[in-house]
UniProtKB/TrEMBL annotation:
Annotated organism of origin: Brassica campestris
Region of interest called Disordered, as start-end residue ranges on this chain: 1-25
Domain TTF-type: 71-160
One example GO MF annotation: protein dimerization activity
Full protein name: TTF-type domain-containing protein
InterPro entries for this protein: AtLOH3-like, DUF4371, HATC_C_dom, RNaseH-like_sf, Znf_TTF
Bias (Polar residues): 10-19
Length: 686
């Protein structure tokens, strides 16, 4: 009868559960709780997870120096090679730990566990900690090895499996891995969620990314979705000189404060043994309400690493930014809400009546078509109001008819058409794959000047356009000298005129917000960075080459170029430019990425190491990347309404595999099988 009844059990996800959520185990050894504090049934699983990850060893970290015995000393990264299977380093505490002793020593020993180690002048303490063959440390190491060797466990010793049984199990497991690989590539749902297999794939993919970075410098870009999930992309130059952008996961953040986001970034970097000190650029994207938090985050990172410059991502559609900023004004936000409803109501009818003329496209093109099809749209709304399929459609058409024939609709339509039109050329130029950085920055300055000119002198011209449109379409024109009536509170006096409301509160305010946004996104520092970068552009036989600007660029990165190296760079640049201008292989290069590839191919990265180092720094800046936006587009494909209960860690693993298909294809079944077997106690050990 037992099979008809479910036994009461305690799930680790239950609020009353004594179990911990071990998917979020801290990577930094200083932030871990004692192994004894975990539930007895979870301890071995926690140990396996830490052993699979390996010791926390941030190889690229700039280890903190401190005064010891009258000399400045620091942790020596070479110790990782000598004691690599157990030695860990905490970035937050700047101290060393022992992973094996943390996991298995229960004799009250606190050295390298609780008390940590930071006597950098006494490296012999490390070998003393290891001790002889039967030392407590070596016993802890042996226990770690025994735990990961499932073949010698009591369970497997009692229940021996024949070779035939193991072969059958291997066949079934390989089939599951093949099915999982296919589902991951296609972004399809799992009937039975093989989370451990997906996690094994994801870990192998990220391992490949870290190997590609190869202890070099890189940029990190982030985006936040509406569920407090931060997607992270690394941008770097690989050993072949190719620029790579790799998605490394979605991080769940409990809140979207800058401190919480910084903590999530720290955990992710510690997880992969990376150091924030190696970041050479930051790029962020997300909802407009995240702007303040992202500003705070980039300031926190820059405070810790003054080479992590923020550069606006050019590939992000500027029109989206312009509209998001303008929506801070209530009436403009209301206008776009009405336009969205209008497109939903009118769209289907228009497509049937005028095919090919209603592909709305961008915000700018949408407003252009609204102006061009205004009379037609009114006729369609009048038709729907009478002949609509249901009462809901007829009511919507009635409300829209009232709104589109008001002065407010006409005014905001032409105001936003004006602002978006000014920004259109820049928006297109910034998204151009083969963009000329100097021309792009020149367009930025021209756009800012034009916005300021319109703000100062463009009111009368706009009102002439609005007045002409109102007259043409029989829309009542307001008297600007009359008192303004707020439609939300029509009985309450506003004590301002229509002129003040529409010119000061709307026109001037909208343009001031745009100018402020431009100044925030294109600061004096990042504008200078980008201008200096353009001096390496290979187009036209390096016609924009400027030695002084490139030396100035190197000085932005004191951690990468010492004072003496800046002097050497200036000398090396003269030889470099003469060398490449007389080499036919460099004649037809178009972009900086091509230059890096050609330097590696021709071995000139060895002949001109400082120039190549500078070029790699230039290429890591997120000037033209849409990877983060693509990642969240991928999330919408993977996490649909039918799969909205997908956990954060499974979602992250799934997206890593789905987005980085190229690396997924390189992961062998055997690699997945080994990791899958090691992550937990299995009924069959291969």
């Amino acid at each position: 009868m037992e099979r008809y009844y479910k036994k009461a059990s305690v799930s680790p996800s239950d609020n009353t559960s004594p179990y911990d959520n071990i998917d979020d185990l801290p990577w930094d050894p200083a932030k871990r709780k004692s192994i004894k504090d975990y539930h007895a049934n979870q301890v071995d699983e926690v140990r396996r997870k830490y052993l699979l990850r390996g010791p926390c060893q941030p190889l690229g970290h700039n280890f903190e120096k401190k005064l010891i015995s009258g000399k400045m000393r620091r942790f020596n990264p070479a110790w990782f090679e000598l004691y690599g299977n157990w030695l860990e380093y905490s970035v937050s505490e700047e101290k060393a730990y022992c992973l094996c002793c943390y996991l298995f020593r229960d004799d009250g020993y606190s050295g390298f566990v609780k008390d940590r180690f930071s006597s950098w002048n006494k490296p012999d303490r490390l070998s003393f900690h290891v001790g002889d063959f039967n030392s407590s440390h070596n016993n802890a190491v042996k226990k770690c090895d025994d735990l990961m060797n499932q073949g010698q466990s009591i369970v497997h010793a009692l229940y021996k499996k024949t070779t035939a049984m193991k072969n059958e199990y291997r066949i079934r497991l390989n089939a599951s891995i093949d099915v999982s690989r296919y589902l991951l590539r296609q972004g399809l749902a799992f009937r039975e969620i093989q989370k451990d297999i997906v996690n094994a794939f994801a870990e192998e993919v990220v391992k490949s990314v870290i190997e590609e970075i190869d202890n070099g410098v890189f940029d990190e870009s982030a985006d936040v979705s509406d569920k407090e999930q931060m997607g992270v992309v690394f941008r770097f130059v690989d050993k072949n000189g190719a620029v790579k952008e790799r998605f490394v996961g979605v991080v769940h953040v409990k809140e979207t404060s800058s401190l919480s986001l910084k903590h999530a970034i720290d955990e992710l970097f510690a997880k992969y043994g990376l150091s924030l000190k190696k970041v050479r650029g930051q790029g962020y994207d997300g909802a407009s309400n995240m702007k303040g938090e992202f500003n705070g985050l980039r300031s926190l990172i820059f405070r810790e690493n003054n080479s992590a410059y923020y550069v606006h991502c050019f590939a992000h559609q500027l029109q989206l930014v312009v509209v998001a900023v303008a929506k801070k004004i209530f009436d403009i936000a209301d206008f776009f809400d009405m336009v969205s409803t209008l497109l939903n109501v009118v769209g289907a009818s228009c497509k049937r009546m005028w095919p090919g003329t209603t592909r709305w496209g961008s915000h700018y093109k949408t407003l252009l078509r609204l102006v061009g099809l205004f009379s037609t749209i009114i006729k369609v709304l009048e038709y729907i109001e009478v002949e609509g399929a249901d009462d809901s459609k007829r009511r919507q058409a009635y409300g829209l008819l009232k709104y589109v024939q008001t002065f407010d609709c006409v005014f905001y339509m032409h105001l936003m058409l004006l602002i978006l039109g000014i920004c259109e050329n820049l928006s297109m130029a910034l998204q151009n794959k083969d963009q000329d950085i100097l021309n792009a920055m020149s367009l930025v300055e021209s756009t800012k000047r034009e916005l300021q000119r319109v703000r100062d002198d463009g009111w009368d011209s706009l009102m002439l356009t609005v007045s002409s449109f109102c007259k043409k379409h029989d829309t009542e024109m307001l008297n600007m000298d009359e008192g303004f009536i707020d439609s939300r509170k029509p009985r309450k006096k506003t004590n301002i005129t229509n002129m003040h409301h529409y010119k000061v509160n709307c026109f001037n305010a909208a343009l001031d917000l745009q100018l402020q946004e431009f100044n925030d996104r294109f600061t004096e520092v990042n504008t200078e960075l980008l201008t200096c970068m353009a001096s390496l552009n290979p187009v036209g036989a390096f016609r924009g080459f400027d030695k002084s600007k490139l030396v100035k660029l190197a000085k932005f990165y004191p951690d990468d170029f010492s004072f003496m190296e800046c002097i050497s760079l200036e000398q090396q640049l003269g030889i470099f430019i003469d060398n490449v201008r007389h080499d036919q292989r460099f004649k037809d290069l178009k972009i900086l990425g091509d230059l890096a590839l050609m330097m590696v191919e021709t071995q000139k990265h060895i002949a001109h190491p400082l120039v190549y180092r500078l070029l790699k720094l230039v290429l890591t800046l997120p000037v033209a990347t849409a990877s983060v936006e693509r990642c969240f587009s991928a999330m919408k494909l993977v996490k649909t309404a039918l799969r909205n209960r997908m956990g954060d860690h499974f979602l992250s693993d799934y997206l890593i595999c789905f987005i980085e298909k190229e690396l997924l294809d390189d992961v062998t079944n055997e690699e997945v099988l080994i990791r899958f077997q090691a992550v937990s106690e299995r009924r069959m050990h291969l």
